[in-house]
Design a protein that fits this description.
heterodimer, A: alpha/beta, Glutaredoxin, Rossmann fold, Ubiquitin-like (UB roll), 5 domains, 5-stranded mixed beta sheet, 24 helices, 14% strand, globular, B: alpha+beta, Arc Repressor Mutant, subunit A, 2 domains, 7 helices, 4 strands, elongated, disordered N terminus, binds flavin mononucleotide, binds FE2/S2 (inorganic) cluster
């Protein structure tokens, strides 16, 4: 909350990424410092504000002064912040990353953002229903229940233009309408929080930072389609999200936002949380429902769609976490306000998870249609160090790599598909000149091959064949005809798989072949990895001109492959060398050459 | 069924755990996965006898229990080490050097990826994204997450747990 009244306030970001960076220690350091000095300070927690690159993050608000944000804080630094800022009233300037009253360099990370979904993330305490309500929470549910009909709600959703954020981009209002019109007394609404794309973390962050927003959106959906029961299906790897969600549900139940006869109407709504058990395919909607029912998560043929026959064979509506988090904002602010952002066919905003070779990795929410270059370079700060941007991967195992030549495209559903990638869930993994695109293709095929449920032959066996080909190319055993073989297998898998997993599994290979064919050819024809990433294709040698005989490489080599006298030139025994890179990393004179 | 493939290691204590947990879910359809999850959290893994008991108590065929347990990667049919080092091999972590972390840990502990040390201290595993991609490469030991790791740091952390 921006308004704190008269009390000084310290806020520590305690989401998974913050905690991994040491935020819990920072929190306890503040606790003991504040107690030791007997200060009248409100110490509070919040979720992820999105600046993951700067975790742990600490906000200090002094009464009457704007919020000041510290980044990369350790427990050791806490004493000085307390002493100089809280007691002395002067911020520790060199540790600040953002300030409300003046422009610091990281402002660029925020200036392009429009935070609708992330409206409360990093500001409210996710474990406090009061803070959510204070920020306007549950007003949208009340508005829908007490002043709108289910059809009104659906009309608003259609008008907003919101499309599903789980990957396929199906219009949410249309989906709700189908479920509403589907005959049946008993219906379900489901939140897909399986977040399977390895490299995406927006759903985790939303659930950890603002769980009530998703719960409220779900209840509104329940009202719209006529469902009195909802399910959250959350990945097993997200224990903190589950914990905060359960707190949110218990608090909402106690306050009467969940339960019987909500807001004096005859609408009743209850929810359950189900934890996944580690299967990527369970993100697919029909597999997810099989998993809730306690079965193996195997996708089934659609139609019938879940709207007609879903969970326990009842009409069901399933949406992604981010989709639901948009709903209360749209109901509260009106569909026009939402549709004012974005493009003709892609309305509103989208949350992206920036990771990989990028200076400012984290979560950003930007209007649809923003330039890809703006997101990567301006918001994300581009590729760090003196490396060069090569590609950005979107859509995970179902998506593709977008090369520099398409850097100027707009980020919306249609433009992305034209490049061969997809919007997907919004994970953007940036790659630079040290990333081998053949290796990336192999990485994804390994993933999908592993996660294929095995039901469709081409998905099961075809991905395995493709993986074998990619493995041999990376090992320097690539043959003429391998590229054509990959293309042929890819086409067949796409056309003969039942669910999206198989249908899209070849995408990472096909898009890298399209844009980085030269890298494949270098591996196959010249047995060379241009990015110096495929170990079997590398040779480590020592440049006699540069070597000073400092013996450091000899010391770090774990297999004794380096030999040479002190002050004499060193050499590497190619038979023994395992290409572990330790010598190159250790050499202070850049004398180790990798080719 | 299937029991011959697995060690029969169910103790009375483990069976009592099953009875206790299954009783909580009595009459609630679709509870097999949460029962398996909670039993595994207490017992450490899912021995064959324990799964048979779950089938009995939850009123589902044993074949379904085995089928579900083998389908989901979360379920262990073999005991794990006292500490489980889970190295993330998601996209961001892969690009930022996850393979070198796994290599370093396997070399340090003298095991292959997915294996447990003979003294039962450590298991090294690869997992898909743990959702801290901006801190890549990432490793989890039990519930603690470590980010921005180098192979050396990963080794040092594992040594600390070993003590
Ligand atoms: C293999 C596969 C994995 C999927 N994983 C997810 C996921 O992790 N999260 C998600 O929201 N949707 C996922 N989907 C999409 C869902 O099937 C479904 O379209 C989505 O939950 C609908 O929600 P939306 O309309 O709000 O996007 C996946 C689809 C496939 C084929
Ligand atoms: S890719 Fe490793 S945490 Fe996401």
């Amino acid at each position: 909350m921006a308004e704190t009244g008269t009390l000084a306030q310290v806020t520590v970001g305690l989401s998974s990424c913050g905690i991994a960076a040491g935020a819990a220690d920072v929190m306890s350091a503040f606790e003991s410092e504040i107690a030791a000095r007997n200060l009248d300070v409100r110490l509070r927690r919040t979720g992820c504000v999105g600046m993951c690159y700067s975790e742990p993050i600490v906000d200090v608000d002094l009464p009457g002064e704007g919020r000041q944000t510290y980044g990369g804080i350790t427990a050791e630094q806490v004493g000085r912040i307390v002493e100089e800022h809280l007691v002395g009233g002067t911020p520790v300037e060199e540790w600040l990353v953002r300030a409300e009253d003046r422009e610091l360099p990281d402002e660029a990370y925020y200036s392009r953002q429009v935070r609708l979904v992330l409206r409360n993330a990093g500001t409210i305490d996710p474990e406090s229903i009061d803070e959510y309500i204070e920020a306007g929470g549950y007003a949208a549910l009340e508005k829908a229940l007490t002043s709108m009909t289910p059809n009104d709600v659906i009309a608003v959703m259609k008008e907003s233009g919101l499309r599903g954020r789980g990957g396929a981009g199906f219009p949410t209002g249309v989906k709700w309408d189908l479920a509403k019109k589907s005959p049946g007394e008993k219906k379900y609404v489901i939140v897909n929080a399986d977040e399977g794309d390895p490299g995406a973390f927006m759903d985790r962050s939303i659930l950890e930072g603002d769980p009530h927003s998703v719960l409220e959106g779900l209840a509104i959906a329940g009202f719209a389609i006529g469902a009195d029961e909802g399910y959250f299906y959350v990945r097993a790897e997200y224990p903190l999200a589950v914990k905060r969600l359960e707190i949110a549900i218990a608090d909402a139940r106690e306050r009467g936002f969940i339960g019987d006869g909500l807001f004096g109407t005859d609408f009743s709504f209850d929810v359950h949380v189900k934890e996944g058990a580690g299967a990527f395919v369970c993100g697919e909607e029909t597999a997810l429902m099989a998993s809730i029912e306690g079965r193996r998560g195997m996708p089934r043929i659609r139609p019938p769609y879940p709207a007609v026959e879903g969970l326990w064979r009842k009409p069901s509506n399933i949406n992604n976490v981010e989709t639901y988090a948009n709903v209360p904002w749209i109901i509260a602010n009106g569909p026009e306000a939402y549709a004012a952002y974005g493009t003709e066919t892609s309305k509103g905003t989208k949350v992206f998870a920036l990771a990989g070779k990028i200076a400012r990795g984290g979560l950003v929410e930007v209007p649809m249609g923003i330039g890809l270059r703006e997101v990567i370079d301006e918001v994300g700060g581009g590729v760090p160090g003196d490396h060069e941007f090569k590609a950005v991967q979107l859509g995970g195992p179902s998506g593709g790599c977008i090369p520099r030549e398409h850097f100027d495209i707009a980020v919306d559903y249609e433009s992305l598909v034209k490049t061969g990638a997809i919007m997907g869930s919004g994970g953007m993994v940036v790659m630079d000149d040290t990333t081998c695109m053949v290796d990336i293709a192999r990485f994804f095929l390994n993933f999908t091959q592993d996660e294929s449920c095995g039901k469709c032959t081409f998905c099961r066996v075809g991905t395995k064949r493709m993986l074998e080909v990619l493995e041999r190319i990376c090992e320097g055993e690539g043959r003429e005809g391998d590229i054509e073989l990959l293309e042929e297998l890819g086409d067949k898998i796409v056309s003969s798989s039942l669910c999206g997993l198989g249908q899209s599994a070849p995408n990472p290979v096909l898009t890298t072949l399209r844009y980085f064919r030269d890298e494949y050819e270098a591996h196959i024809n010249e047995k060379r990895c241009p990015a110096h990433a495929c170990k079997p294709l590398l040779t480590y040698t020592i440049d006699p001109e540069a070597c000073t005989g400092c013996t450091l490489c000899d010391k770090v080599c774990p297999v004794g492959a380096v030999s040479g006298e002190r002050k004499g030139i060193h050499t590497i025994d190619q038979e023994l060398c395992t290409k572990c890179d330790a010598c190159r990393a250790a050499c202070k004179f850049d004398a180790v050459i990798v080719e | 069924m299937g029991a011959t493939h697995h060690a029969r290691e169910a103790t009375d204590e483990n069976l009592a755990v099953v009875d206790e947990i299954a009783a909580e879910y009595a009459g609630r359809p679709g509870s097999l996965i949460p029962i398996l999850q909670r039993v595994q959290a207490r017992v450490g893994y899912l021995p064959a006898d324990v799964m048979e008991r779950i089938a009995e108590r939850a009123g589902v065929p044993a074949s379904q229990v085995f089928g579900v347990a083998s389908f989901y990667s979360q379920f262990r049919l073999k005991p794990a080490g006292k500490h489980v080092a889970r190295v993330c091999h998601g996209t961001a972590c892969h690009v930022q050097g996850a393979p070198a972390l796994t290599d370093a840990l396997c070399a340090e502990l003298g095991v292959e990826d997915g294996e447990t040390t003979p003294d039962g201290e450590f298991t090294v595993e690869s997992v898909a994204c743990v959702g801290c991609c901006s801190l890549a490469p990432v490793m989890m030991i039990e519930d603690d997450t470590f980010g921005r790791l180098t192979p050396d740091e990963a080794r040092r952390i594992v040594r600390k747990y070993g003590k």
